[in-house]
Structure formats: C-alpha cells, structure tokens
Amino acid sequence: MSHVCLGIPGQVIELIPGYGGQLALVDVHGAPRKVNIGMLDDDPPGPGQWVLIHLGLAVDRLSPEAAAEALRGLELMGRGTDPEAP
C-alpha cells in the first residue's frame, strides 16, 4: 500500500533563534509561517533554500525547480498561490 503525502513548498526566510535550532520562518505563498525543521537537522536548510512542508514540519529539501513544479501541481489541483484562498 502506498501513501501520498501532499506537501507545500516554502522558502526559508530565516532561522528562529532558540528552540534548539529547530524552527525557521518560511515564506509559504507570500505568508510567513513558523516551520519545524528538526527532521532535517543532519543538514538544516538556510535562508533562501526551499523545503517541503507537511503538517508544519519540513520533511524534505527542494531545489528551486522542484518547488516551482510543486506549486504548479497545487495550482492544477485548484489551489492557487493566493494564501487567503480557501
């Protein structure tokens, strides 16, 4: 049985001081969000890098090209880049 994980790409703005180095401020479709990057602590992302977010956790690093492809996929599913869209 396979599972599908729908993640949202976001670009790291900055690491948030404290929290054991496990929180980052991430731009998600123009809205800043606090994201737990602890799962990536073997190679934490820095400002400008892209991550795949699922349930508030960064689960993978993305290239800019992969992030753009993920955003296009979300738009095809009817979820545009407007952070206020339902």
UniProtKB/TrEMBL annotation:
Q: Record's superkingdom?
A: Bacteria
Q: Which InterPro entries match?
A: Hydrogenase_HupF/HypC
Q: Which GO terms describe its molecular function?
A: carbon dioxide binding; iron ion binding
Which BP terms in the Gene Ontology apply to this protein? Answer: protein maturation
Member of which family? Belongs to the HupF/HypC family.
Q: Which Gene3D superfamilies match?
A: 2.30.30.140
What this protein is called in its record is Hydantoin utilization protein C
A Pfam family: HupF_HypC
Q: Which SUPFAM superfamilies match?
A: HupF/HypC-like
